[in-house]
Design brief:
The complex is a heterotrimer of chains A (about 150), B (about 500) and C (about 110). Helices cover about 65% and strands about 0% of the residues of chain A. Chain A contains 6 helices and no strands. Chain A is flat and about 50 Å long. With about 500 residues, chain B is mainly alpha-helical. Chain B has one domain. Chain B has a two-stranded antiparallel ribbon. The two termini of chain B are about 20 Å apart. By secondary structure, chain C is mainly α. Chain C has a domain of about 70 residues. Chain C is elongated, with a radius of gyration of 19 Å. The chains are: A mainly alpha (about 150), B mainly alpha (about 500), C mainly alpha (about 110). Chains in contact: A-B, A-C, B-C. At the A-B interface, helix 4 of A face helix 1 of B.
Chain lengths: ~150, ~500, ~110
C-alpha cells in the first residue's frame, strides 16, 4: 500500500519540467523587457510567464503548486500590477498631460534603457496578465475532481 | 477630465486589494468614489456652458494621431445621468449586498463597469469606444451571474453569448470604416466621409452598427436576452443595467455614431422610428401577462427604450428633446422601480406577485416611492414621465406621423394598466398571514429610494427656462450632425 | 479582394455554429471562430503591396511597411476575446454542475 498518493504526471515529465520551467520564465521576462525593441511587449510576455506556472501545475498536480503560490497571492499581484500601471499614467500629470513620456530620459534608440515610460508600462501589464491567467487556470481546474468520479 | 475613468479604475483595484482584510473599505471607497464623480459631472455642466466644447488630448499627442477626450453638451448630460444614478445605487448596495458573500468583489466589478461607461461617454476616438464598450459589457456579464444560482447562470450565459456576437459586429463595422478612411478619430472620419461619400457603404455600415448597438440597447429584433438577464441579477445590478447600461452602451453610442460620424438621412431616421415603435408595442403587450415583478419591469424597459428611440428618430428639435428627456427620466424611475423590487425581495424573499399582498401597512416608504415611480412611468401629471411623453407625442403629431402618435398613446395606456396591476397585487389588498413579521428595509436603502422619488417629482422642472440649457446643449450637439468635426478642430487651436 | 470574402465566409461559419449547435462547448468554439475572423479581417486591412514588418531595427533601412495601427488594435482585441472566453467557460462549467447536462435545449428554466 502506498502511503501518499503521487499527484501529477510520471517521473519523466517531472524531470524535464524541472529543467525547462526556468528557461520558459526567462524567455518570458526577455520578451517583456525588450517590448520596445522587438515584437511582444506586455501582453505576450505576460502570457508566457503565466504559461511557466501553468506548466508547473500540470506536471506536479494542483495542490503542490498552490502551496507555494496561493490564489490570494496571485490576486494581490494582479491588483498591484493594475495599480502600478495607473500610477505610472498618473505621474504623467507632472509633465502636464496624462500618459506623457517624461520619465527615465529617452536614451538613444535601440538601446535597452530607452523610450521613457514604455518599459514600466510593459512590466506592469505583464504582472497583471500573468497573475490573472494563472488565477483563472487555478480556479477552473478546481472542478476536475467532481467530473472524474462519475 | 480623464478623472472620470481614473477614479473608478483606481477604486476598483484598491477594493480588490484591500477588501478581504479590512471589511468596510469596499463600502467607503465605492461611495466616496461615486460621490466625487457626481460632483465632477455637475461641475462639467458649468464648464460646457462657458466653453461650448472641451477637447483633451491624452499624452499631448495631437489628434488625428492621438486619442482625444471630448466634453460637449451631450457628454455632460449623459455624465450627470450615469453618475447620479450610480451614486444612489452605491448607497443602496451597502445594505442590500449583505446577503451575498464576497461583497468586496461586487464593488470591484461595479466600479469597473462604471469606469467603462464613463469611458464610452467621454471618448472621441472610435476604437477607444470599442475598448470601453467591452470593459463595461464583460463586467456586466460577470455581475449578472453574481449569485450563482442555476437561473442566474443560464441568463448570464445567454446574455454573454449574444453580447459578444454584437460586439463582433461592431468591431467589423469599425474595421470597414478604418479601411475606408484610414483614421480612427471621430471628428476626422466625419471630415473624410463628407468629401468622399458612398451610399452602398453607408447602408452596410448602418446595418452592422444598428444590429450591434441595437442588441446592447434591447431594440426589438434583438431583445431576447433582456427578460432573462434583468430579473436574475441582484436588484442593484438590475437597476444599474436597466437604468444606465442599455442607454449608454446602446442608445448613446448609436446616436453618436449615426448623427456625428456618418451623416444621417431620412432612411436611417425612418428605420429608427420603425424599430422604436415596434419595441414599444411588443414590450408592453408581453409585459401585461407577467407575474414575476422584475420580469415585468424588464419588459417595460424594452418598451420605454422604444419611446426614446422613437423620439430621437424623428429628427426634429422637439423630437430629440423629448427623446433625451425621456432617457433621463427613465433612468430615474426605472432604477427606483428596480430598487423597490429589491427592497421587497430583501424583506419577503420572493418575487412572485400572486403571493404578495397588502404590504402597504408594513413597508410604508417602499410603497409610497413605488406609487410615485409607477405614476411617473405611466405618464400621470405632474410627475416627470408625463412631460417627456407629452413632448414625444407632440413631436410625432408635428412631424405628421399620426400612426406613430397613436401607437405611443396606446403604449402609454397599457403601461398604466400593467402598473395598476402591480400596485394592486403587491401593495394594496389584504395582508396575508405569513407576511405579518416583515419590517421596513434599513436606512440607507430608504434614503436612496426617497432621493430618487424626489428627483422624479422635481424632474418636470427641467423644461422650464431656468434649466433649459442643460437639455438644450445636448440637443444642439445632435442637430449639428457632421459639423461636429468643425467644432472639435476649432477647439484644438 | 478574395481574401476579404474568405474572412466573411469564416465569420458566417462561426455564426452558424453559435446559432444552430446544441452543445454549449460548440457554441463557445463558434464564438471563438467569429472573433478570429474579425481579427483576421482587421489585420488584412493594413496590408500594403510588398511591405515588410513595421519594426525598426538597428541597421536596416526599411522603406515600405505594412500599416502598424491595425496590429496594435488587434492585439487589444485578442486579449478582450481571451477574457470573454475565460468568463464564458467558467459560467459553462458551473452550469454543468447545476443542470447536469451540456445540452441547451434542456437548460430552459426561464421561459415566458
Amino acid at each position: 500500500m502506498g502511503n501518499k498518493k503521487e499527484t501529477g504526471m510520471t517521473v519523466i515529465v517531472k524531470t524535464i519540467t524541472r529543467l525547462t520551467v526556468g528557461l520558459i520564465l526567462l524567455y518570458g521576462i526577455y520578451i517583456v523587457l525588450h517590448g520596445h525593441l522587438s515584437p511582444g511587449g506586455g501582453f505576450a510576455g505576460g502570457v508566457i510567464i503565466a504559461l511557466s506556472f501553468i506548466h508547473l501545475m500540470l506536471a506536479f498536480g494542483r495542490e503542490t503548486v498552490l502551496r507555494k503560490f496561493s490564489q490570494t497571492a496571485a490576486s494581490i499581484v494582479e491588483s498591484l500590477g493594475a495599480l502600478m500601471f495607473l500610477l505610472v499614467a498618473l505621474l504623467g500629470f507632472s509633465g502636464g498631460y496624462f500618459f506623457l513620456n517624461f520619465f527615465l530620459q529617452k536614451g538613444k534608440p535601440f538601446d535597452l534603457f530607452s523610450a521613457g515610460i514604455i518599459p514600466l508600462c510593459n512590466i506592469a501589464i505583464s504582472l497583471k496578465v500573468g497573475a490573472g491567467l494563472f488565477a483563472i487556470f487555478a480556479a477552473l481546474i478546481l472542478f476536475r475532481g467532481s467530473g472524474e468520479e462519475e | 477630465m480623464p478623472f472620470f475613468v481614473i477614479i473608478p479604475l483606481g477604486a476598483a483595484f484598491l477594493v480588490s486589494l484591500l477588501g478581504k482584510k479590512i471589511k468596510s473599505v469596499g463600502d467607503v471607497l465605492a461611495n466616496l468614489g461615486t460621490l466625487s464623480l457626481l460632483i465632477l459631472s455637475l461641475y462639467s455642466i458649468k464648464l460646457v456652458n462657458m466653453y461650448k466644447v472641451l477637447v483633451y488630448e491624452v499624452g499631448s499627442w495631437v489628434p488625428p494621431i492621438g486619442i482625444c477626450l471630448v466634453l460637449d453638451g451631450l457628454t455632460s448630460f449623459m455624465l450627470v445621468t450615469v453618475n447620479l444614478v450610480s451614486f444612489l445605487i452605491a448607497l443602496y448596495s451597502v445594505n442590500y449586498m449583505e446577503k451575498y458573500t464576497d461583497k468586496y468583489r461586487f464593488y470591484t466589478l461595479f466600479m469597473l463597469m462604471l469606469a467603462g461607461m464613463n469611458g464610452i461617454i467621454i471618448t472621441g476616438d472610435l476604437f477607444n469606444l470599442f475598448v470601453f464598450l467591452e470593459i463595461a459589457s464583460i463586467s456586466s456579464y460577470a455581475l449578472v451571474a453574481f449569485g450563482t444560482e442555476a437561473e442566474e447562470l443560464e441568463a448570464s450565459f445567454k446574455y454573454a453569448i449574444m453580447g459578444s456576437v454584437a460586439s463582433s459586429f461592431v468591431l467589423l463595422g469599425i474595421a470597414i470604416l478604418y479601411a475606408y478612411t484610414s483614421t480612427l478619430n471621430m471628428a476626422d472620419i466625419a471630415n473624410v466621409l463628407s468629401s468622399k461619400p458612398s451610399p452602398l457603404l453607408f447602408s452596410f455600415l448602418a446595418v452592422l452598427f444598428l444590429s450591434g448597438f441595437g442588441l446592447k440597447a434591447a431594440l426589438v429584433p434583438f431583445h431576447a436576452w433582456l427578460p432573462d438577464a434583468h430579473p436574475s441579477a441582484p436588484a442593484s445590478i438590475s437597476a444599474m443595467l436597466s437604468g444606465v447600461l442599455i442607454k449608454v452602451l446602446g442608445v448613446y453610442a448609436l446616436v453618436r455614431i449615426f448623427f456625428n460620424v456618418l451623416g444621417i438621412n431620412n432612411f436611417f431616421l425612418s428605420m429608427l422610428m420603425f424599430l422604436g415603435v415596434i419595441s414599444m408595442l411588443v414590450g408592453v403587450f408581453l409585459a401585461i401577462g407577467q407575474w414575476d415583478f422584475k420580469r415585468l419591469l424588464a419588459y417595460h424597459s424594452i418598451s420605454q427604450i422604444g419611446y426614446v428611440v422613437l423620439g430621437i428618430g424623428l429628427g426634429t428639435p422637439l423630437g430629440i428633446l423629448g427623446g433625451l428627456f425621456h432617457l433621463f427620466n427613465h433612468s430615474i424611475f426605472k432604477s427606483l422601480l428596480f430598487l423597490n423590487s429589491g427592497a421587497v425581495e430583501y424583506s419577503l424573499g420572493t418575487r412572485d406577485l400572486q403571493k404578495m399582498g397588502g404590504l402597504r401597512e408594513k413597508m410604508p416608504i417602499t410603497a409610497n416611492t413605488d406609487l410615485v415611480a409607477s405614476m411617473s412611468i405611466a405618464g400621470v401629471p405632474p410627475f416627470n414621465g408625463f412631460f417627456s411623453k407629452l413632448i414625444i407625442i407632440f413631436a410625432c403629431i408635428e412631424a405628421g406621423r399620426f400612426g406613430y402618435a397613436i401607437c405611443a398613446i396606446v403604449g402609454s395606456i397599457l403601461t398604466l394598466a400593467s402598473f395598476m396591476k402591480v400596485q394592486k397585487y403587491a401593495f394594496f389588498g389584504k395582508l396575508s398571514q405569513k407576511w405579518q413579521q416583515v419590517k421596513e428595509v434599513p436606512v440607507l436603502m430608504c434614503l436612496a429610494m426617497v432621493v430618487l422619488a424626489l428627483i422624479c417629482l422635481a424632474g418636470g422642472l427641467l423644461i422650464t427656462p431656468f434649466f433649459k440649457s442643460f437639455l438644450g446643449s445636448a440637443v444642439d450637439v445632435l442637430l449639428l450632425g457632421t459639423g461636429y468635426s468643425g467644432t472639435i478642430f476649432g477647439a484644438l487651436k | 479582394m478574395s481574401l476579404y470574402i474568405l474572412c466573411l465566409a469564416l465569420f458566417c461559419i462561426g455564426l452558424y455554429c453559435v446559432l444552430r449547435k446544441r452543445n454549449i462547448i460548440k457554441i463557445i468554439v463558434g464564438l471563438g471562430i467569429i472573433e478570429y475572423a474579425v481579427n483576421l479581417f482587421f489585420v488584412l486591412v493594413g496590408y500594403r503591396e510588398h511591405g515588410r514588418a513595421p519594426i525598426l531595427a538597428k541597421d536596416q533601412e526599411i522603406l515600405n511597411m505594412v500599416d502598424p495601427i491595425p496590429q496594435a488594435l488587434v492585439l487589444t482585441s485578442i486579449v478582450i476575446g481571451l477574457a470573454v472566453t475565460a468568463l464564458i467557460v467558467a459560467i459553462a462549467i458551473r452550469i454543468f454542475e447545476k443542470y447536469g447536462t451540456f445540452d441547451i435545449t434542456k437548460i430552459r428554466r426561464l421561459r415566458g
